[in-house]
Specification:
Blueprint lengths: L1 H9 L8 E2 H7 L7 H10 L4 E4 L2 E7 L3 H14 L9 H7 L18 H4 L22
Antiparallel strand pairs: 1-3, 2-3
EC number: 2.1.1.216
Catalytic activity: guanosine(26) in tRNA + 2 S-adenosyl-L-methionine = N(2)-dimethylguanosine(26) in tRNA + 2 S-adenosyl-L-homocysteine + 2 H(+)
Keywords: Methyltransferase, RNA-binding, S-adenosyl-L-methionine, Transferase, tRNA processing, tRNA-binding
Length: about 140
């Protein structure tokens, strides 16, 4: 409980929505970047960022959407995808010019206190093999 409450207390209260970075990366079909790199890039761009308690790969930020897409474009330029994996949507996003200079240098303040203290911030399964299993075939 302490970890979940810590994440909630660290959230940006004035930002109502969150973005899941694995979803943004999957739209352009590139590999998912580390959440610490994303948070650092947003902070280096001069915006605020926090985790969201709803998803471990989510961020809440006051940065405009074009900043997040610039970060994804920069990441893909450093970790290019194969041309045959590109589709119309990913090509349309990746072909746009970047509007900001992206700096993904990891910052100390990108790692929140709850993560540094290694608190359990997201709910874990209570037991091994807990939850829905495969349907019986007998």
């Amino acid at each position: 409980m302490e970890g979940v409450l810590a994440v909630i207390s660290e959230e940006l209260n004035d930002v109502p929505l969150y973005y899941t970075m694995d979803r943004l990366c999957s739209i352009v079909r590139c590999q998912t970047m580390s959440i610490l790199s994303v948070r650092s890039a947003v902070l280096n761009a001069g915006y605020r960022v926090s985790y969201s308690h709803a998803n471990r790969m989510s961020i809440k930020t006051d940065a405009p959407m074009y900043v997040l897409w610039d970060i994804v474009r920069y990441w893909e330029s450093q970790n290019p995808i194969k041309m045959e994996r590109r589709q119309n949507v990913s090509e349309a996003i990746l072909s746009k010019k970047q509007t900001i200079k992206v700096d993904m240098t990891v910052r100390e303040d990108a790692n929140p206190e709850s993560r540094q203290l290694k608190l359990v911030r997201f709910q874990e399964n209570p037991l091994r093999y807990w939850g829905p299993g495969t349907r019986s075939t007998t």
